[in-house]
Design a protein that fits this description.
The chain is α+β, with helices and mostly antiparallel strands. Helices cover 50% and strands 13% of the residues. The strands form two sheets. Strands 2-1-5-4-3 form a five-stranded antiparallel β-sheet, with helices on both faces. A five-stranded antiparallel β-sheet has the order 7-6-10-9-8.
């Protein structure tokens, strides 16, 4: 029977300590990093909102002021020599003040026929310029102020604005038109300056058409951006100043998040749009996240390594202790000692365990000695009882011991275990214990028993079973003891059992009992030789005796394992049992 049962392993101390080091070393770092990143993100977004709103408002004000200033100059223009209107060449006094402005590229003073003097700093190569000028002339000739553009002149690489104002006489009649081409390059530079670091600042009109952009290629494309989320929001809100919001744009089939704001330009149906990709805007935060992740992984690895190191430092002695305890539990190896070189509680535990194994070893040895003494005392009592039984008949003295010896020889041939041999030994010694209840006159009768006497003798197996039933520890040998006079063909007593129904111990004792009875002197017969007794038993195999038991006994005799306790001689007469 096992004295130790290993429980299922749930988790190791090493894993627990490693996890603990990880939690204590990494989790606080992750929490602090997350908090720091959140704070930085909030501050960055707050700064971005303030910056974008301010930038959009400032850029829209600068554009409005720039254009308003040139419109006022054109509106206040009053040619001193109206006679110049009849000429196609500008005179020296026609436009001296306005032309001093570097951003005015061309001035024309036209009569109602569209003729008049002009002066210019740039000889425009773009064929669309005359068309734009004609449209401005028509609108102003009808008495309306006109602002056209912005236009990007690709061949001239310049962005321009056309301003045209009617010139009226004292009767408020339109007599001429002043047309001015103003360079918008200063505004483009403003947009370019504000578009640094991934930020894009551009201008659209009331229909979402792109008017001004830092990139000339974008202006040359004349794209309509009404489908853009942020431009759509500008058109929907009517140009009201917007806070920074998150928009989702679809670019090349992929959705991109952008942060942006917009502001309308006073006096014009234009709006300033400012936007930036969210990933670019939060690049510093994303970089911080990457750095935090990198350092978090490094700290996690460091914590794991530290946890493994310290866990092994702690658990290795415990594993040695557990291994030793397992060895003691499985193999009862109490002589092996735990050898640790530590100065902590684990060493104290090891010393205590060594002391405990010594104590257990001593106690087990004491128990074994006590058990051995008890067993010896018990077997001595059994032998004494068997001797008392045999002593009732001088012819059967030593019978129980001999039956025990023969039965054990047969059992070993059949491969009985040590426990089974021990049980058989007790059963064989006590097989005739029931004869205590049989009268001496019957037991010691020198002649054959009468039928009545034989019936009394046949009760001794049951009497023996009743006697042994008072001892609980002998309950497993009672069936074999009770059946030692049963015959294999079912003609025996006391129960008339047949074949395999007869307990195996009873079948063995039957052969051993018969063999001893045949090879010892009895009042009614002299002892037979071993060969005669063996042949007699073989002839009754399957009738009176179990064939397997007879075969085992025969092999034991042939191998010289069976010897008679005293000399015997052959007797040809049949034996009466």
């Amino acid at each position: 029977m096992a004295i130790f049962k290993e429980t299922a392993r749930k988790s190791s101390i090493a894993a627990t300590l490693t996890l603990l080091f990880f939690i204590l070393g990494v989790i606080p770092l992750l929490i602090s990093n997350w908090k720091l990143i959140s704070i930085n993100r909030e501050e960055l977004e707050s700064s971005l909102r303030e910056s974008f709103v301010t930038t959009a408002s400032n850029v829209s004000s600068q554009i409005a002021d720039y254009i308003r200033a040139y419109r006022l100059q054109v509106q206040e223009f009053n040619p001193k020599n109206m006679s110049l209107l009849g000429s196609d060449v500008a005179g020296p006094v026609a436009t001296p003040l306005l032309m001093k402005d570097p951003n005015i590229l061309k001035i024309r003073l036209l009569n109602k026929s569209g003729k008049g003097p002009y002066t210019q700093k740039l000889n425009f190569q773009d064929p669309r310029v005359p068309e734009w000028e004609f449209e401005a002339f028509k609108q102003a000739l009808q008495g309306r102020s006109y602002v056209g553009g912005p236009y990007y002149c690709g061949p001239d690489d310049v962005t321009i604005l056309l301003i045209a104002e009617p010139v009226r006489n004292q009767e408020e009649e339109t007599t001429a038109v002043v047309s001015v081409i103003v360079s918008l390059e200063p505004l483009v530079r403003i947009l370019s300056d504000q578009s640094a670091g991934g930020t894009q600042v551009y201008v659209v009109d009331a229909k979402g058409n792109l008017l001004l952009h830092p990139k000339k290629t974008e202006m040359n494309a004349h794209r309509n951006l009404a489908g853009s989320a942020i431009v759509s929001d500008y058109l929907r809100t009517g140009g009201r100043l917007s806070t920074v919001r998150l928009f989702v744009e679809t670019r090349d089939g992929k959705k991109t998040e952008i942060l942006g704001s917009h502001s309308s330009i006073s006096g014009l149906n234009w709006g300033v749009i400012i936007q930036i990709d969210k990933n670019i805007a939060l690049a510093s935060v994303n970089s911080m996240i990457k750095e935090s992740t990198k350092w978090g992984i490094l700290f996690a690895l460091a914590a794991a390594l530290a946890g493994i190191f310290f866990a092994r430092w702690i658990t290795n002695p415990i594993q040695v202790l557990a291994s030793h305890a397992l060895d003691v539990g499985r193999h009862q190896n109490f002589d092996k000692k735990i050898e640790l070189h530590a100065s902590n509680e684990i060493q104290q535990l090891a010393d205590t365990f060594n002391f405990m194994t010594d104590e257990i070893k001593q106690n087990i040895e004491n128990l074994r000695n006590a058990a051995r003494e008890n067993k010896d005392l018990f077997m001595s009592s059994i032998r004494m009882l068997a001797a008392v039984i045999d002593a009732k008949d001088p012819y059967t003295r030593g019978h129980s011991e001999r039956v025990k010896d023969y039965a054990l020889i047969i059992a070993r041939m059949l491969g009985f275990s040590a426990i089974e041999l021990e049980r058989l030994e007790i059963c064989a010694l006590l097989h005739d214990v029931g004869k205590i209840g049989i009268e001496d006159r019957i037991l010691r009768k020198p002649t054959n028993l009468t039928p009545e006497e034989f019936e009394i003798m046949k009760t001794h197996p049951d009497k023996g079973a009743n006697i042994l039933s008072q001892i609980a520890q002998l309950s497993d040998i009672i069936p074999g003891m009770r059946a030692h006079h049963e015959n294999y063909d079912g003609t025996g007593y006391p129960q008339g059992l047949k074949g395999e129904a007869i307990p195996l111990l009873g079948r063995l004792i039957t052969v051993a009992d018969t063999f001893d009875a045949m090879t010892t002197d009895r009042p009614y017969q002299k002892a037979f030789t071993l060969e005669f007794a063996l042949n007699r038993i073989r002839s009754m195999a399957g009738i009176k005796y179990d064939p397997k038991v007879v075969d085992a006994f025969s092999r034991a005799c042939e191998e010289g394992k069976v010897s008679l306790h005293k000399p015997s001689r052959p007797r040809p007469q049949p034996m009466v049992l």
